[in-house]
Amino acid sequence: MKMTYFIKDQNLSLMKESFFTYRNKMINPGDEIISIVEDEFSTSQDLVKAQIKLLELEGQYRSLKRMWNSPSVKLNTIFQPKYSL
Q1: CA triplet 21, 73, 80: central angle to 5 degrees?
Q2: pLDDT value at position 39?
Q3: Helix 44-65 and helix 12-25: axis angle, to 10°?
Q4: Cα distance between residue 38 and residue 43, in whole Å
């Protein structure tokens, strides 16, 4: 069964605990973590920055757990304006 985990795009240090918790729970290669950008004035640059944060956290997780040979996970970023929540 595919699981999708959502994380709010914030400061890297604030995202780290949630990301590591979700990453520890992931068992299927089809699982994914999605970063949500909530600013209604965000640009494509903000989406790219959010994706870079996810990639940095994935690198930190793999180096901490020494899991460089583990299967990759899906990391996505979406735009979700606050007024649509």
Answers
A1: 75
A2: 80
A3: 60
A4: 11
Mean pLDDT by 10 residues, the chain (85 residues): 88 92 86 88 88 93 86 86 65
pTM exceeding 0.70:
yes
pLDDT at 48: 92
Residue 37's region, left for phi above 0, alpha for psi from -120 to 50, else beta, is beta
Contact 73, 33 (CB under 8 A): yes
DSSP 3-state of 35: strand
Query: What is the identity of the amino acid at 65?
Result: K
The closest of 13, 31, 21 to 70, measured between CA atoms, is 31
